[in-house]
Design brief:
By secondary structure, this protein is mainly α. It has ten helices and no strands.
Length: 208
């Protein structure tokens, strides 16, 4: 019940403001939750203000929680991208990655996810070379965490294959596409959509 969730968050926000004042971490947390819920519902205009408020509070703290700050930055980037302001979103996604590297370097999995998110956005904006670098970083982390024979690699391999195609690295692209297909076949049921996607991508590239 999303409306019920919204009412609960709004009550928590009002209580936090009344109890602690406008710049308390609990106000940032409730503002963040309200912004994330709004974006989940597709209400981007409603989500932008609470996300910006959460960021303002967090940036004013001496040692803001990394998870909250990363979520607020990513959430606002999503709003900006969805409302046609991608050039404003890109610095926020880069900030998330640098935040992970400098203040949460032990959380390798989250760093890999944020690198992949940044790389995906970079591809959409045409920054293919930087996307390639970020994707290679993410792949190295996933291989470190899961090994090379892991189905967790597949979505990242799709992204890397797309980047290689854009760069004209066709031999590497075919190898990456085949690896994604092999991993999918080896670890997933035969009717899993990842296998179909890998096959479709491979066939589509071959005929362009």
């Amino acid at each position: 019940d999303l409306e019920g969730a919204r009412a609960l968050i709004e009550r928590a926000l009002a209580l936090a403001e009344a109890t602690h004042g406008p710049n308390h971490p609990s106000v940032a947390e409730s503002s963040l939750n309200l912004g994330v819920l709004s974006t989940y519902e597709g209400r981007f205009a409603d989500g932008e203000a609470p996300l910006r408020r959460a960021l303002d509070i967090l940036h004013g703290m001496n040692d803001p929680p990394v998870s909250m700050l990363a979520a607020a930055l990513s959430g606002l980037a999503s709003v900006l991208h969805s409302t046609g302001r991608g050039e404003e979103a890109l610095p926020l996604l880069r900030e998330v990655v640098e935040l992970r590297k400098t203040r949460a370097s032990d959380d390798r999995r989250s760093l890999a996810i944020d690198l992949q998110n940044l790389a995906t956005f970079l591809v959409s904006r045409g920054f293919i070379d930087e996307a390639s670098t970020r994707t290679a970083e993410a792949r190295a982390i996933l291989e470190e965490l899961h090994g090379t024979d892991s189905v967790a690699m597949v979505p990242l391999l799709w992204l890397q294959e797309e980047i290689q195609y854009h760069r004209g690295e066709l031999a590497a692209q075919r190898e990456t596409a085949q690896l994604a297909l092999d991993l999918s076949k080896r670890h997933l049921p035969a009717d899993h959509w990842w296998i179909a996607h890998s096959l479709t991508t491979q066939i589509g590239r071959a005929h362009v």
